[in-house]
Amino acid sequence: MKSHRIVALFTRHMYLYKRSLPRFMEIFYWPLLDLLVWGFVTVYLVQFRQNLPGFVTFFIGALILWDILFRSQQGISVSFLEDLWARNLLNLFASPLSPTEYILSLMSVGVVKLVTTATTMTLLAWVFYSFNIFLIGISLIPFVLNLMIMGWAIGIITTALILRFGQEAEVLAWALGFLFMPVSAVFYPVSVLPPFLQTVAQFIPAAYVFEGMRGVINTGAFPLKELLWAAGLNGIYIIIAFLFFFWNFRIIKRKGLLVRIGE
Amino acid sequence: MFEPVVEIDGLTKVFKSLKAVDNVSFNLYPGEILGLLGPNGAGKTTIIHMLLGLTTPTSGKIRIFGLDLKKQREKIVQDVNFSSSYVSMPNSLTVKECLRVFSRLYRVKDKERRISEVLRIFEIEDIQDKLIRHISSGQQTRLNLAKSIINSPKILFLDEPTTSLDPDIADKTRRLLKSIKQERNISILYTSHNMKEMEEMSDRIIFLHRGRIIAKGRPDEVIQGFNRKSLEEVFLKVAREDN
């Protein structure tokens, strides 16, 4: 593995954002709309739920954290689509670039997108709702890391599926992340889910993060147990995601699909 | 005799029930231009993709620079490059940005100097700051070729490199490729549907039909072997016998 190849691909994606307003909108526009719409809904609802402590923190905090997961996933899958749409994949994979280096470069693009989006949302939440996400405290760091890794895992699996099944699977780049939203218990506790979905939620790292976040807001205690579960599951899922990608990469080379998708 | 830079032995590729490449063996020697020709579906592009490690062969062996491609691809492709008129460049980048990305991928030393050099060689200096989407298809082809020599490769795989060029630029490009080959002793594997171009460019040719080699040798030898006057006539004979 060579860092200069990861940097090369990272630079290629940064060039895109340098001059493209629509691409910048992808980073700022949707998070801003989310924050405005759901933020004001929260402000409205809080008038009727005075006795629910930290309602704004629950909701807006969850919104910002969910976007971290979503942007992390998009950082990989949408950046991959950029290469696909540019019909440039063959040129890339004809070079010494390895699949691992390719994925690592997309992950680094994801980090930049995520940091940009999260910073913007944090500032806007503070301006519009006087909400300070750092009130969550030191737990915020492991929360963000766990959501970022889960986003990467979903992004890598999405990329593998698009490589394998072609452009008709492109919709997964936007849809697959949302599939996990109901069972991640972003805006409500896991306990409100029906029993079988509660079982599913036990295998979703994000569910532990959001449960942990609510725990911190309610009690102020560091959610060690939740974070350990989330980290353990994420460790397994990111390995599975990489293996799934390599397995698919071998198949597409055997079936000659890289050539078809890359031209 | 020089050692071959590419050795292909019994190369076969089967896609489901289609045998795209059937037990093909040949060598490419240093400083040689070897033309792969044949009708559509003959297996030319599949061979190039297998040589780049983009498609896995069903069976057979590929050795490049004496190394097994399957085991040492990363090392091999550092000194190899390719250009295809069917593969695009990222069109939201400028010409120069694009070449910067590829020079980093291949870890080119003194990148800016090399980029200026390849821009000059292919006469596209004046468009270096233009977005790729705003340049003509002929300029894109020349950019593709510029990218293909950015790492000063020892072997070039060119898949129909002059398809979208007008006759003047195509002629210039052929001369350029010949002079690059002459100066740097590059080995070139070349495919084209332009038979005159193949005759003019190739030191040797391999004629493929339905994935199999049906003739090989110097262009004049192949023409004589089919008792025809030109490669074009040979091509038409093979293609029409098929119908």
Instruction: Using the 3D structure, state the CATH architecture of the largest domain in chain B.
Output: 3-Layer(aba) Sandwich
* Low-confidence segments of chain B: none
Strand content of chain B: 25-35%
Low-confidence stretches of chain A: none
**CA-based gyration radius of chain A:** 19 Å
Strand adjacency order, main sheet of chain B? 6-7-8-3-9-10
Q: What structural category characterises the helix and strand content of chain A?
A: mainly alpha
**Element pattern of chain B in H and E:** EEEHEEHEHHHEHEHEEHH
Give the H and E element order of chain A.
HHHHHHHHHHH
Outline type of chain B? globular
Helix content of chain A: over 70%
Query: What is the subunit arrangement here?
Result: heterodimer
Could you give a short account of the major beta sheet of chain B? 6 strands, mixed
Rg from alpha-carbon coordinates of chain B: 18 Å
Q: Give the distance, in angstroms, between the N- and C-terminal Cα atoms of chain A.
A: 26 Å
Number of domains of chain A: 1
> Which whole number gives the mean pLDDT of chain A?
87
User: Can you tell me the CATH topology of the largest domain in chain B?
Assistant: Rossmann fold
Number of strands of chain A: 0
Relative strand content of chain A: under 5%
Detailed description of the structure:
The complex is a heterodimer of chains A (263) and B (243). Chain A has helices at residues 3-19, 21-46, 55-85, 89-94, 99-129, 140-165, 172-179, 195-201, 205-219, 224-255, 257-262. Chain A is mainly alpha-helical. Chain A has one domain (3-262). In chain A, α6 packs parallel to α10 (224-255). The model of chain A has no long low-confidence stretch (mean pLDDT 87). Chain B is α/β, with parallel strands linked by helices and 243 residues long. Chain B has 2 domains: 1-79 and 154-243, P-loop containing nucleotide triphosphate hydrolases (Rossmann fold, 3-Layer(aba) Sandwich), CATH 3.40.50; 86-152, no CATH class. In chain B, 39% of the residues lie in helices and 25% in strands. In chain B, the strands form 2 sheets. A 6-stranded mixed beta sheet of chain B has the order 6-7-8-3-9-10, sandwiched between helices. Chain B has a 4-stranded antiparallel beta sheet with strand order 2-1-4-5. In chain B, β7 (155-159), α6 and β8 form a beta-alpha-beta unit. In chain B, α3 (95-105) crosses α4 (111-121). The radius of gyration of chain B is 18 Å and the shape is globular. The A-B interface holds A 2, 4-5, 7-9, 11-12, 15-16, 19-20, 82-83, 86-88, 90-98, 250, 253-256, 258-259, 262-263 and B 13, 15, 20, 45-46, 49, 52-56, 73-75, 77-78, 81-82, 84, 86-93, 97, 100-102, 104-107, 147.
